[in-house]
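[User] I wish I could look at a protein chain and see how it folds. I have put the entry right below:
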Amino acid sequence: MIYPIVIYGNSVLKKTATEIDKDYPELQTLIADMFKTLQKADGVGLAAPQIGLSIRLFIIDLEPLKADHPEFKGYKKVFINPTILEYSDEEKSADEGCLSLPGLSESVRRSVSIKIHYFDENWVEHTDTFSDFPARAMQHEYDHLEGHVYTDRISLIRRQMISKKLAALTKGKFECKYKYKL
């Protein structure tokens, strides 16, 4: 199943997501469908709130970037009930976009590396450190679980400058190539 992507302005994107347990219904199917949805939308990360589910689950698929980054070949990860334990002091700004904010991108400052605790799709517990682009993607998706989108991390002046574009998103005035819901 390909899920529609929830667009900016939908209240689910502002909620703090809740943890799930091993008995969550059809979890493996949900994860597989999230990967299908992400692939169809040409993204590299997808959090459950972006498909309307306020649960602590996100996926990362960096495989589409392998042409320029061979190290990302086969790079697919599932994060269930993640908690970021540490953020590096070193930060870097880079442009970010989001499937829930089609047509927009902004420079966002994030930690260069993170230490994160999570369970994978087989409920194996992990505590790992990630750096550079994978760490950025994980922080972006983690924000969705905390009820934030990347525009919450830009300056007030930048938010004011794009306020009309954000308002247009909430009214469905945008174009994208994937299924969505307001």
Remarks:
- The longest strand covers residues 76-87.
- The radius of gyration is 16 Å.
- The chain has a mean pLDDT of 97.
- Strands lie at 5-6, 45-47, 57-61, 76-87, 91-97, 105-111, 113-119, 125-131, 180-181.
